[in-house]
Amino acid sequence: MTSIVRRPRPRLALVGAALVACLLVGCSGPDGAAPVPGSPAPSAGVPSDGPPDDSDLASAAPAMTTRTLTADGIELLLSVPVGAAPGGAAGADGDAGEPAAAGDAADPAGADPATSAPVAPVTVTPDEDGSSRVSFGLAVPGAGTGAASDSGAGGATTGTTDSTADHSAATATLDLVSPADGSLLRNGDGSISVLDAAGTPLGGLSAPEATEPSGSAVRAGVLVVAPTRAEVRVKAVGATPSGTAGTTASAPPDDVTVTTWLGAQGVRSATWGNREGGRSLAVDPTPWARQSGLVGEETAWAQLVASEPEADSSTMRDQFDCHALGATDKKTWNLEPWRPDVGFLATAAARCNPTS
Q1: What is the pLDDT of residues 187-216, one digit of tens each?
Q2: Closest CA to 332 of 310, 352, 355, 309
Q3: Among 190, 229, 254, 346, which is most buried by a count of CB atoms within 10 Å?
């Protein structure tokens, strides 16, 4: 049905005349083409002269590959942006790096396998003590252009940060799934402890280390951004936000391999005996506890005093920490409850065996 558009009365006669002429003679476009309808009025929010510009489009979330990490009751989800793979930056043909294992990541919707960058693989290598070596790739973007602050060794933030993103850093995330009432704690050395509801260390991840094939200087750090979420950040050493007087932002590498060590067992054995004329507890920490820094030290100590309550004294703790700091390779860490409580510094000066 043809709709009737009501117009002001002075033009009614002209409109009626034109309509009659079309009915009698026949209206057609050039070369006899059918009449072309008028262009509809632009709908709200859509420009009539072309496709919407960038300001009309929401930024697409980056594609991620997610891997579950487990260790004796601990479950973490590691999410890594799709990008470079360990061992070499991905080229245009996509043949550099190692492709992800089947099931490790979902394909981005609409991605073209022939042109998309390979999914960053996450490699988990189990060890004999129940721990796992975890490696993944991060594609570090260009040097920072925002006003975000630089971060110190181990990921400690120095200075202030505004809402501008630091484009010189690449980020992976760690989300704690189990224990459900647990939380994450960043230790002073950059390692991450998983705590139960009472705050007891259950295990966790060693401080991440970043390596780059070409030898460029890179740094990895960890920041706990929520009770159950941490971020692993990698950036080039010397990358500086633009606008900083007297400095030049360095170009970071394209492909970085990040390695960390997940574990939950700190002690293999603890046996009482006699040594130097008194009772002695021979503690054999796991390889993970010996090499993972503060997270291994805290976890091993918590498990030791849970199994051997007599070890829970200041002098035993100082002897334990002394071994963890300077005698990690000893077959056993021998702790004696009868040794004097002289404080950690004096215990370390006495090579972990204070006598007076």
Answers
A1: 999 999 999 999 999 999 999 999 877 766
A2: 352
A3: 190
